[in-house]
Amino acid sequence: MHAQGNQVTNATGPAWVKNIPTDDLIKWRRHIHENAEVSFKEESTSEYVESILKGFNNIKILKPAKTSVVGILKGAKPGKTVAFRADMDALPVQEETGLAFASKNENISHACGHDAHTAMLLATAATLSKMKDQIKGTVYFIFQHAEEQAPGGAKDIIKSGALKDVNAFFGMHVLPNFPAGHIGILPDGAASTMSDEFSLTVIGKGSHGSMPHLGIDPIVIAAEIVNALQTIVSRNVPPGEMAVVTIGKFQAGNAPNVIADKAELGATIRTTSDATRKLVETRIKSLIDNITKGYGATYNLDYKNNYPAVQNDPALNKMAKNSAVSAVGKSNVFDAPMMTASEDFSYYKQIAPEVFLTLGVGNGVANHNPAFNLDEKALQNGVKVQVQIILDYLNQ
Ligand SMILES: [Zn+2]
Ligand SMILES: [Zn+2]
C-alpha cells in the first residue's frame, strides 16, 4: 500500500518545534534500548524516566504502580485534562540487530519498540514543560509498565485512581512496515484486536524411546493438537471474519531416546468480534479435549481472555488526524488498517475516550522479531504529532 522509503519532511512548523530535544531523544532511546527490562520488572527503566522527568520544569511526578511513572504538567490556564501514554517494557527475546547499543541483558530486548515510545514521550514532556504559560488545562504523561504481559500494567494504573480526572487518552505505536515518520490513523471504533491466550500441558506417560507401547507420547498428541487448531481459522471462522490462532510455544522432551511425560503449548488468539472470540475459544477447548481423550492422555488448560480491543473515539480520531497533518504535513499522514496486534491501552477507555495511532519506522522487520529495528529519524515526527495532539485537544 505504502512504498518503503524515508520521506521525513522537515517543513517549518510551529515555534515550539525548536524546543524538541532531538539529540536527547536519541540518547534516551538508546539508553533504554541498551538496558531493556521485561514486563513488571522495569525497575531501572522507570528510575531513568523519573530522573529525566525531574530535570524538566513544572512537572509533578506520581508513581501509581511499582514500575510506572506519571508526569503531570499543569498549565497556567484552567481547562481539560489529557493523557498521552507510552509503554516501557521489553520482551524476552534475544536481540539480533547487531546495534552498538544492543541490549546488554541476555534474552531481553526492545523488539516491540517501546524504547522509542518512552523516549518520544519524554521529548514531548520536555517540549511542553517549556510552554506552561500557554497551556490551557493539564497534561498527564503516562510511562506505563508491562504492556506485553497480561494482565498488563494499564489495569494497575487505572486501579490506583491516579488517572480519574483524565478526559481523553492518546497513545502511539511504532510499526516497521510503514515508511519512517509516516503517521498511520487507525479506523474509528475497533482499532486493534481482542487478545486471548492459553497455556496447555498435555500429560502423557513417559517411557523408553524404544518401548513406545508402554508410554503415552505427549509430543505426538501435542503435534496433532497444533495441526488441528490450524483448521479453526480455515474451517470454522466465517470467511471475512478476522481471527488469528498462533501457537508460539511448544516445549517437550529432553533426550532423543526418552518418551516425555508431558508437552507444553502456549498460544495467542486475536479476534475482533465477541461471537468469533467465543467460537474460537469453544473450538480450541473441544479439539484439545477430544484429541487428548482419543489418545488416552489428560491435560491442564489455562485459557485467559486478555485485552479488549482499542476503540478509537471517532471525534477525537478526526481531531488527531488534523493534528498530525498540521504537525508533519499531509504527505506524511495516511489512513491505516486496523492493527492485528492487541494493546492494554484499550483499558483506558474505562475512564475516558481513547485514540491510538501508529508511527512508521521503516525497515520492514516485524515487531517482536529478534532483528526488529527502527529508523530513528522517524521519532521526531512522533514527538511533533504528540505535542500537537495535546495542544489541539486542550485548545478545542
Ligand atoms: Zn509488542
Ligand atoms: Zn508494543
TrEMBL record:
Record-level GO BP terms: diaminopimelate biosynthetic process
Binding of Mn(2+) 1, residues: 173
Cofactor mode of binding and number, as noted: The Mn(2+) ion enhances activity.
UniProt superkingdom: Bacteria
Record key words, sorted: Hydrolase, Manganese, Metal-binding
Residues that coordinate or bind Mn(2+) 2: 112, 114, 148, 368
Cofactor field: Mn(2+)
Gene Ontology MF terms: metal ion binding; N-acetyldiaminopimelate deacetylase activity
Annotated ranges, domain Peptidase M20 dimerisation: 197-294
SUPFAM superfamilies assigned to the protein according to its UniProt record, in alphabetical order: Bacterial exopeptidase dimerisation domain, Zn-dependent exopeptidases
Name of the protein in its database record: Peptidase M20
Organism (species): Flavisolibacter tropicus
